[in-house]
Amino acid sequence: TTDLKAAFMEAIPQEMERLKMLKKEHGAAVLGQVTVEQAVGGMRGIPALLWETSLLDAEEGIRFRGYSIPELQERLPGAKPGGEPLPEGMLWLLLTGQIPTAEQAHGVTGMLRERSAVPAHVQQVLAALPSGTHPMTQLCTAVLALQSGSKFAAAYDQGVHKSKYWEPVYEDSMDLIAKLPGIAAAIYRNTYKGGARIEPDPSLDWAANLAHQMGARLAPRSDELLCVKIASVGSALSDPYLSYAAGMAGLAGPLHGLANQETLRWVHGVQQELGESPTKEQLRDYVWATLKGGKVVPGFGHAVLRKTDPRYTCLRGFAQRHMPEYPLFRLVSILYEVVPDILMQTGKVKNPYPNVDAHSGVLLQYYGITEERFYTVLFGVSRALGVLSQGIWSRTLGLPIERPKSLTIDAMLQHVASN
Ligand code: NMX
């Protein structure tokens, strides 16, 4: 079949069976222990969530349905033969667990295209916001405005049986994914191009249509770049519009997705102070000055990973192929040689290596998307594939509401004393 919903439905019975078996046979097995340090340290590393679509390994980075990023670049169908993978293929893989054929990926393109129209009231809400509103705030606002059309919310109101939750959640998720390029482009055009909209081109795929609707005389290959970027997926849960908007509000924090924008600002600061080709010695001093100013070096470090982020490596490979002489890329490459040593010398940074945000902005600059406040929106559009796929599975498997237990300092002290 080239119909994603039919392929997803085929995958359901086996997955339900596996979950039932896991609960029945191993329900009491211990996955890990929780230390006081973890409870006061942001719950880092506590194995406490079922998540089928991706798995993050500290050494190796992320795998989607068991495949690493280089493996996916090799195996997922491209927009052009041998080109960067189509995000539509990624969506197929995340939902079904199977690598799609080119026809199946194109089937998803067609299905999304039919759902892609952004309702007029959402455009009006965006247009009504003050022009300086941060693009991430605009994204959350637009998605919440879309929620009025939620099929899940309507079905729930009508008393739908819980075994059928998955279906309206699936429909909402596809609607939302389909509309995100139009929404992101509207935010871009409202904020930076005086608001004039560019209509979607029905001959283009999902990511290419985003590039097209953003307009702005993008260089050739910018649509391929958006494919590379959009294929790097991520994490959240519940009514797809509300939960995605909540996730986006989290992504908008500077230590999370906003690091994208922060990195570029920081790199521009380097250029302004030290010129186009600073020496390593000058860069070392600059990095130390940032640290001594009580600030983080954006784009470096990770809460889980302990190696260079494979998403960084993937974007670096793209830059090496398409813009090896670009000054900003050369600067980012020298930073890769300089920053980790310094972060190691602080003696506290657990992972001194670059993450995806250290690189993505540089590529966008090269292709003419120079407005860094917009970058996290692109990141958010790409994340929709991952979080919404998992959201569909969570409702399909009937997973319960998440409710981690919190403790006071007194409760922890009492617990420690009584053990
Ligand atoms: N620059 C300066 N200090 C850092 C950095 C950095 N890039 N990374 C970690 N540290 C510090 C951190 O602030 C903490 O200091 P303190 O004890 O004084 O509070 C100490 O090193 C230990 O932190 P870690 O356990 O290594 O890192 P943690 O898990 O707390 O935080 C990040 C992870 C990603 C929030 C952190 O590395 C960071 O702030 N990086 C810069 C911002 C960034 O690039 N964020 C994007 C992440 C994207 N992504 O995850 O993919």
UniProtKB/TrEMBL annotation:
The keyword Transferase applies. Transmembrane segments: none annotated. One of its GO terms (molecular function) is acyltransferase activity, acyl groups converted into alkyl on transfer. Keywords: Transferase. GO terms for biological process: carbohydrate metabolic process; tricarboxylic acid cycle. GO terms for cellular component: mitochondrial matrix. Belongs to the citrate synthase family. This is Citrate synthase. The lineage of its organism: Eukaryota, Viridiplantae, Chlorophyta, core chlorophytes, Trebouxiophyceae. The chain holds residues 27 to 445 of 704 of the full protein.
